[in-house]
Structure formats: structure tokens, C-alpha cells
Amino acid sequence: MELFEAVVLDRLVKQRGSTEGNLRTLTAVVLAAILVVGCGSCDRGDAIAAPPLPRRSDTSAPSPAPATPSAPAENSFQSSGPVVVENQVDVAAQRDGVVVVIAADTGQSVHKGDLLAQLDDRELLSDREVAQQKLDAIDADVKNWEAELKVLQSDLERAQKMWEAHIISKEVYEHTQYNTQADQYELLRERKNYLSQQAALHSLDLELQKTQIVAPFDGVIARRYLRAGQRVEAGARLFWVTAMSPLRVRFTLPERFVQKVHPGDLVSVSSLDQHAPAIHSARIIQVSPVVDPASDTIEILAEILGAPDDLRPGMKTSIRIRDVR
Description:
Blueprint: H1 2-14, H2 20-49, H3 56-60, E1 76-84, E2 88-92, E3 97-102, E4 109-110, E5 115-119, H4 122-164, H5 170-210, E6 212-214, E7 219-224, E8 231-232, E9 237-242, E10 248-254, E11 266-271, E12 280-287, E13 297-304, E14 316-322
Antiparallel strand pairs: 1-10, 1-14, 2-9, 3-5, 3-8, 4-7, 5-6, 7-9, 10-13, 11-12, 11-14, 12-13
């Protein structure tokens, strides 16, 4: 603007002697310059006085609320252990034999005494039949000796009366007496033979029972180790049978829990192999009376309450118990 004013004044000096028309022209130019200068000053003042516009974020976004501290975690101790059952055994063969029948398979539920497999028992059945016939023969001998003894006892009574009446000699009376005693001994011997044969027959019955592999308790067959036609020896594993209840967990606790946990206390049990496992309650039923010196821990056995569907024998579980620190 200062440069523009200087130019206008210079033009006024040079055209001082011009005509009246030129003077009007210069006057118009000066007025225009004054208007321009005034407007420029107004613009600069407005720019200085105007307050800064607020940011959009200052008006639309609320200030964050202060964070609330979370509640402290429960004072508990976590351990782990497997799910176990008391009744879980390998059913083994009690005698040598050939498997002729398989009556149960893996996954099948069984009750105590149900037939699982059968060994060949034909030879034993034949031996038992012979033993039974011999027992019947001895029984007949016993009855015969009992009848003969009754006759001799009757003769002895008559001989005693005759001897007392001096009808027969003492030698005849004593002879009758000795015969009666001999028959008594024979009867006693046959009775013992009968008992011995009864024991032999019972032994064969036991051997026949050994040819029948039966379930020792209610449960489920977890594994089968035999096949039809296989010859097995005494002691060989045939089936693995496990009960399904009651379910228990076996775990260990640090030495500081000695005298702090007791049978009847409750713990929480959940599976380790599930994404969102259910939590079950278990009651402690056994606390080891000694501390393992190798690990400085005590062993605990707890029984799970109810009948949980998500737990099976052998599964790994997480056990939580109130800490005693």
C-alpha cells in the first residue's frame, strides 16, 4: 500500500498543470486508493480479533471415564490330578485253556457275574462226570456198611443176652463184638472216602468255574486282549474292566497343607482338556498321613459329587482349594 500511495503522489506532482478533466481523473484515483486502504485495514482487524474456532474433537468426543480397579482374585491354590475309580482291574485267566466263546467286547456295559469269555471245558466236564459217579458209588458203600452195622449191632445185643444167660460161651460173644467194631471202622473209612471224593468233585467244579471269565463288578469293558481260538495261560490279561462311578480325583498338595485339610472339606474340580469346562464339587475322603520327602507334598483323594457327564476315568483335571497362607 505504501508503494501505491507513492505512485499516486508522483502522478499528482507531474500532472499539476493538466486540464480540469485530468484533475478529476486523479481525484477519482486517490479516492479509490483510500477505499482500498480502508478495506485492507478492516480485514486485518477482523482477522486479529476473531477467536479461534473450536476443534470438532473437542465438542463431539467425551472425556474418558476413570478406570475402576478390578476385584482381587480369590485366595486359592491350584493343583492337578487324574480322575480315578476304585474298581478298575485287568481280568486275567485263572487257568490254561483255549478261548471258544467271546461274549463281550470293548465299550460294553457289564454287571457283576456276567460272562465275558469261555475257555474249552470239555475235558473238565468229562472228569467231573467220572468223579460224580465215583462219589455215588462211595455213597452206596456207605449206606451198605450202615445197614450191615445195624445187623451186627442187633446180633451183638442178642449175643450179650445169651452170654449173660450162659447159653453161649464168652468166646462166641466176643467174636460177635469184634465183628461189630470192624464194621464200624469200615463205615468210618467209607464216610471219609465219601468226603474226600466230595472235595475232589468240588475242586473240579472250581476248575470249571475258571473256564468262565466273568465280570468282577458293574462297569464297562475298556479293553479286550483275547481273540477266539487263542490259547491263553494262567495269569494272562484277557479284559480290562473299569467302573464308571463313583468318580474320584487324586492330587498332591504342598507340605504347608498338613493339618489344614481334612476329610469332608470341599474342593473344585474341572477338566483340563475342555475350552469352557464345567466346575464340579468334590469332597475329600482321604488325606495321606505322611509327607513325600522327594517332593514335600501330601497325597489327597477326593470324591466328585453327583454324576458329571463331562468327566471320565483317566482324564486330567484342575483342582482348586482354599489357600492356607
